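Quick one: structure for this chain?
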Amino acid sequence: MRAGKITAVFTAAAFALPMGANAAQEEKHCRVVGYLPDWSYQAYSDLDPADLTHINIAFCNPDENGRLCCNIPDSELESIVKSAHEKGTEVFAALGGGGGCDNYLRFIEEPDRMAQFSSDIMTYCEKYGLDGIDLDIELGSQDRIWDYYGDWCLQLRELCDDRDMEMSTATARWVAEKVTPETFALFDFVNVMAYDNDEDSSSHASYDYSVKCLDYFSAVKKIPSEKLVLGVPFYGRGYTAEGELDWNSYRSFADLVKDNADNYSRDSFNGYAYNGAETMAKKAELAKNYGGIMIWELTQDVRGDSSLLKVIDRTLYGAPSAAIGDVNGDGEFTVADAAALQGWLLKKETALADWSAGDFEKDGVLDVFDLMLMKQALIVAAPKKHIVTVTNTEELYEAMRNAAPGDVIKAAPGNYDCTSETMASEADGTADAPITLCALDPDEPPVLTGQNTEHGYVLHIMGDYWVLDGLVCTNCQKGIVLDHSNHTVIQNCELHTLGAEAVAIRDGSSYCTVKDSYIHDTGLVSPGYGEGVYVGSAKSTTGFDYKCDHNKIIGCTFKNVAAEHIDVKEYTTDTEISGCTFYGDGMTGANYAGSFIDLKGNDCYVHDNVGYRNGNPKIVAAFEIHEQVEGWGLHQTFENNTVYMDQPYGAEDTSRRMYVVDGWFSDYSVKNNRVDYGNGLVPANSREYYNSAHVTYLD
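Got it. Here's what it folds into:
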């Protein structure tokens, strides 16, 4: 591994000492990726590479023979790479760019030419000591390049691995349509171009648009959050008189601030929309929850105190609030700092390493009031994580029974036999310190197995704020059951070979999330109760709190599920289902199971899912809504779903329309759904696709 390479870490103590702008890159926990254009590379001399984790040379594109080149002289490029490496910053060759990738197809459409082109790319990187490549292929979804893109990326991935190089991509929603989640998984990280948005007439790069883009790539393209790098602009764009984005209107942030110093904090000026310091700081805070931040492009920044790059660096690593309290200078804010301040106030201590860190009142002096505020801050500070590694069933039982807020229970690879007792816990985590049960090695997940598919649960969580990550649950009646458990997350899990449902969110469990999990082969004993995810409880049951609200099922894959893939029961509200993939194989039709999703609660949001009926005659609609209780089964929204239903009418009842949404009594809204009845995808934008007289068609 190259010396400059960093490992992404996305959690930090609440009062950890911040790193300065020139801290070693291996200490940085967020990527800061900046593009350096070859047409104005001279501005590099004003940059400090330590402010960045990656510099992408834009652009290195092939000549007529397929050999990469850029407009930076060899000696200058070698100097840039050398100075960056001295500061621990990686340098990538960025390939493509807007208007720069029009001739790429001819180099990859034939296997021999693809192999030679890929080899030439590696030769170029090795010549200049580059650390990786960034694919910035900005072509429309109809371009033929996407027919070969996945194979090309796989080839490049193997070549990069052989050389211990990294591979990233720059993409936008309009670019990514034909790129599969499997291809995106080949990249070490993905730079999301959350700018040049022409959907509105006010901002091409708003904060809300950044959130929308990140949600899309997370939910639809199934890219883990730690791999998503938020792209931000160091420039502004103007608009035409009709309110449309003016592609010929472009001004750097440096020029905007030069026009008026107050533009440093604004987001618009004289018809130009851009990101000022306040919005840039807000986006940097958002990027902390993902893989970092990407900049187009570095030479457009202001030099000195008004630099947006400095705003990003201060937000990620140098915010004053992060250092407050650390008066003894040991890098942490602990009770030792309170003791040091108290000793200094009593004149028992002669000096403090950083007296200003103790100035909680921000009045320039230290007194007993600062000590009181310091002690209060220590009381509310999040507890440190306690990592417990378990290697067998008994150790896992013990760790779960005695779990406390902040515990991270890591299960080693192997089988954990739950035949004698369900893995259960009533312990509560907190918002700042959840309890985590996860795989010690994500590549070799622990397998939690029950006695047989007729009895019991594998995991039974009865406390709040749990994270279940990277587990396999199998050979039991139910996989994971949440009872009166709030804010619990089930992620990256596999649940299979189960007698009934895989996941049950019930008995007052709200604000829970099931995401990025693979659920298959359920309902082996009770097909009519073999749902993939079951939210709430039926009115016919007793002893349960029916209200299970604000739950989410995101980015999951369902296959060979005997009943509905997701069943949302009456009395529940605000369930979100997004980015899921449903395969109809295995649905039995038992207990009226005839659709991918069955909704009986209110205000559900179903969006960006894909469903494949795969010729199963038991499936009679993509999504169904039922009225089990008067006043329930109402106000749903279905948006951006794509369903392959094979035929326009049912197989067993040839007179029944194969609706996208079948809910005759219900009021619901639809937008941008598509359906294939065997002759290709068409927009599902009219009455023939929806069985209700109360449908609202959103623009």
